[in-house]
Design goal:
The complex is a heterodimer of chains A (315) and B (272). Chain A has 315 residues and is mainly alpha-helical. Chain A has helices spanning 2-17, 22-53, 70-77, 79-95, 98-109, 117-129, 132-142, 149-156, 171-196, 200-208, 213-241, 245-251, 254-258, 263-266, 269-279, 283-311, and strands at residues 56-58, 64-66. In chain A, strand 1 (56-58) and strand 2 (64-66) form a beta hairpin. Classes of the chains: A mainly alpha (315), B mainly alpha (272). The interface between A and B is large, with 99 and 100 residues. Chain A: Belongs to the binding-protein-dependent transport system permease family. Chain A: Keywords: Cell membrane, Membrane, Sugar transport, Transmembrane, Transmembrane helix, Transport.
């Protein structure tokens, strides 16, 4: 107690002795200047511009005119937008299954005295570091209805598999599997770090109370891990709502993509944004679409913060 | 504790999961070495046909060499820029005192909360009006600045001991000297973590390079590959060869720098 108080006093004394000099302040501004200017020009000002663009209509030669809320009215009535939002929400919701899966695998890897942890961890991590375009292409091949490995394996057990990403009934599930496969290693690493931060005494106390390993997992590990799980769920939801790479490569874009019978089940909000902004050059409308995406992300994040009281335990 | 009884079942589960993680890559490699007819044979053969010319074909279909170089230059530029600029700003926010510091840090952080798609149209306009479309600058410059990097490194700087810094100050060292010769070396683990994350993101980035660089020889690997599959949808062995070459460099870096990679990811995930 006194030691910390003393330390605080000396630190205060130091601070008092070292009044912020004018040169120090000057250097402060110089040091933040490059990033500050870069963020202002390329990130902060663009957000405001996008908000402004969402109230404009773009002509063929890049000029734009103020149209008020017309883009938003169009957006609300646009069935394609509605579909894209539903698809994106479905992908986001189904993808949450990956979180408990990652917890289970992290718990297994965290067992004391387990051998080969480094090998398993590497295997789980490989999809995380692989280029998403390559991942999408690889899975497109695995899912191929005629020659894909998935259906070949199913055929061994007598199942006649569908053409996974071209069948409206299966396309979204097929996509979610790839999403979980490629992100589980990331989540696992963060859960593992969270588990290793749980104090050993808690397990010892639970063990003395007669709790077995499974019981300890449910009454110590899970509650202690809930803040990490909350963080992961926030990050996953935000990331899933911005899904683009996987779908873009799996379905392609333009005419070829529309030939896929499952296209309307796969198109996401960001993919729609890409098409409106850079394929059909309908930039005002595209701006309205991303503003709507921002609102969706904000709403789901606020909702999660509200719900956390029911399941997140802070020590 | 029954240390001996536990592992077997656990190993079965983990090995099965690991197989599910790795098998697709093995199949990718096998397919990349087959003829098209070999790849589409039913039932499939599990053996490659050693058709190395698929790899040569990737270079014929695409300016793959150019795209590889573009990707390397872009990634190196972004890594160098972010490590330098972010560490400067992070040091200032962690250790220097100046009016408006907290407010400015809040403004920096606000960038983190905005989904990147909101920046894209105006950024494209900027590139277009500078005449930078289809150039290396276009894919490098916006990536030199990052709020995330500032946030990550500030956490590292805050955790460093004050004593060395104060000793240096008593010896008459100014902020620049303290930053360069004391703080940067001490923050090395943080700098490495940031460098690795920026490399990973830059190498795998698709949306921005796809939008600004549409000339095949100015594209990055991920955009080039996405374009390739649009044109040659059926030649899977060649596509598999191309996607293997494109993702291999980062996988190789990962294998060599596993610990730093994992630490980087774990750091990016902790709320600090």
């Amino acid at each position: 107690m006194t030691a910390t108080a003393e330390k605080r006093l000396t630190r205060a004394a130091h601070a008092a002795r070292r009044r912020p000099s004018r040169t120090e302040a000057l250097w402060g501004y110089v040091f933040i200047a490059p990033t500050g200017l870069g963020l202002a020009v390329f990130y902060l000002w663009p957000v405001l511009q996008t908000a402004y663009f969402s109230f404009t209509e773009w002509g063929a030669f890049g000029g734009h005119t103020w149209t008020g809320p017309a883009n938003y009215a169009r957006l609300v009535a646009d069935p394609e937008v509605g579909r894209a939002v539903l698809n994106t929400l479905a992908y986001t919701g189904l993808g949450l299954v990956g979180i408990p899966l990652a917890i289970v695998f992290a718990a297994l890897l965290n067992l004391p005295g387990l051998r080969g942890v480094a090998v398993y961890r590497t295997a789980f991590f490989l999809p995380v570091v692989t280029m998403p375009v390559a991942v999408a292409m690889l899975w497109r091949w695995l899912y191929n209805g005629d020659y894909g490995l998935v259906n070949q394996v199913l055929a061994l057990v007598g199942v006649d598999g569908p053409n996974w990403i071209a069948d409206p009934a299966t396309a979204m599930y097929a996509l979610v599997v790839v999403g979980i496969w490629s992100s589980i290693g990331y989540n696992l690493i963060i859960f593992l770090a969270g588990m290793q931060a749980i104090p050993k005494e808690l397990y010892e106390a639970a063990g003395l109370d007669g709790a077995g390993r499974v019981r300890q997992f449910f009454s110590v590990t899970l509650p202690m891990l809930s803040p990490t799980a909350f963080f992961i769920s926030i990050v996953s939801v935000i990331g899933s709502l911005q899904l683009f790479d996987l779908v873009f490569v799996m379905t392609g874009s333009g005419q070829a993509a529309r030939a896929n019978p499952a296209y309307s089940r796969l198109q996401t909000v960001v993919q729609l944004f890409y098409e409106r902004a850079f394929v059909t050059d309908d930039r005002g409308y595209a701006a309205a679409i991303v503003i709507a995406l921002l609102l969706l992300i904000a709403a789901l994040t606020v909702l999660q913060f509200r719900l956390q009281r029911r399941w997140v335990h802070y020590v | 504790m029954s240390e001996r009884r536990r592992p077997f079942g656990v190993h079965v589960v983990l090995a099965a999961a690991s197989l599910a993680m790795v098998a697709p890559f093995v199949w990718q490699a096998v397919t990349s070495l087959k003829t098209l007819s070999g790849a589409t044979r039913v039932p499939p053969s599990l053996l490659p046909e050693w058709r190395w010319d698929n790899y040569a074909k990737v270079f014929e279909l695409l300016p793959f060499g150019d795209q590889f170089l573009n990707t390397v230059v872009m990634a190196a530029g972004r890594v160098a820029g972010q490590v330098l600029f972010c560490s400067m700003a992070a040091y200032a926010f962690a250790r220097l005192r100046f009016p408006g510091r907290n407010l400015l840090f809040g403004v920096f952080l606000s960038v983190l909360m905005v989904p990147p798609q909101l920046f894209v149209i105006p950024q494209y306009q900027i590139m277009s009006s500078l005449g930078w479309l289809n150039s290396l600058q276009a894919i490098i410059v916006p990536g030199l600045f990052s709020a995330f990097g500032v946030f990550l490194l500030r956490q590292f700087f805050l955790g460093l001991p004050r004593e060395l810094e104060e000793a240096a100050r008593l010896d008459g060292a100014g902020p620049v000297r303290i930053y360069w010769s004391i703080m940067l070396p001490l923050a090395r683990p943080g700098l490495v973590a940031l460098a690795i994350l920026v490399l990973l993101w830059a190498w795998n980035d698709l949306f921005w390079p796809l939008v600004v660089n549409t000339d095949p020889d100015k594209m990055t690997l991920s955009a080039g590959l996405a374009a390739l599959q649009g044109q040659y949808q059926t030649d899977y062995p060649v596509l598999m060869a191309g996607s293997l070459i494109a993702s291999l460099p980062v996988i190789a870096v990962f294998v060599f720098l596993q610990r730093q990679f994992i630490q980087g990811i774990a750091t990016s995930g902790s709320k600090g």
